[in-house]
Predict the 3D structure of the following.
Amino acid sequence: MKMSWLIIWAGMLLWNQVTADCNITSQTVICDESGKNLSSIPTDLLQNVTELNLKNNKITLKHNDKNILIKLPNLTKLHLNENMITVLQNNSFCNLTKLVILDISNNYINTVHQAAFAGLYQLIVLNLSHNRITQLDSDVFSSLKNLRVLNLQNNLLESFHIKPSFKLTTITLDGNPWNCSCSLLDLQMWLTASKVTMENENNTTCTFPNIKQKVSIKTATIQLVDCETEKLSEETTIPSTYAIKHQSTVFLTALTSNITGNNGTHAELPVLGKSWTFLVGVLGFVLSTTLLIFTAIKCPTWYQYLMSYRHRRLEENDPEMFEQEFSADMSSFPAVSDIDNEDPIVIFDKTNTFEPEEDGFIEDKYIDTYVTEQS
């Protein structure tokens, strides 16, 4: 009898040594690993742990941490506040189907992926306060069918697109730079239509525009007509090139499918409508008319340019060129002994004598000799 008690006592000592940070009861296993400067979730945790406190560590919730959480399917409460988490990846808590409370506040979260909370079917309380979230859509919470309390306090949200089917009992939104314009209209309508309680409502005010500062986002005036006009203008300012490109792609796809056919055989080309024929006819008429007008204007000018005679003025260096050519020709003649050396110079002077009264034009040989004789 004493031996059995000794064995039990030794087993209890060994058990308490291994699970020194866990409080085990008949229904819960609560483990406290807070403030231990941990860079990742411990791997030696009991698989039947129900509450896990990892507050005030350096956990980043990377791939290895996700793999460890998968092995803890009995968790109902998880505290990851005051860590160094920056991104909530898809399926970060996918196997925690019994989780009821998730606290990820006081981190550095700036991005929340679409399926970050996938698998948390029993989650009721979600705390995302004191982070750096700039954009968030209600689709992120679409899998949280039982979510009732959402805390988004002290983030960087300017708007929050939310669907009417999103059901909460309590929401906290203060401490964000809300822009009370058309982008916040759906949130305002949801807050008014639903029975949700907005915590710190008096402190949940607009930051932009300046004329609405310190006004509650729930009561700020946002004209529905102005928002519809703005939405319509945005839709009409879509670049026309995109629409044309889209239509061209659709047409080419249909054309290709009709040519090749479903079984790769040749098929008949699609018949174009009458509008295409009319458009081609108009374009042909306009182009042909423009060409005729252009030809009628330009042809007489070209004819006058080709058939007219234009005198060319002598360049200033033409006499010098002529003198050089004449000297070269004279040097090629045989020397005559009976003529003095100065004779060629005389002939050259006579030949190159130009009267200063001339107008500088070359004499036209086609001028009628009759006119010359009369003058």
Notes: The two ends are 164 Å apart (CA to CA). Residues 8-20, 262-271, 344-352 have pLDDT under 50 and may be disordered. The longest strand covers residues 29-32. The CA atoms of residues 330 and 344 lie 8 Å apart.
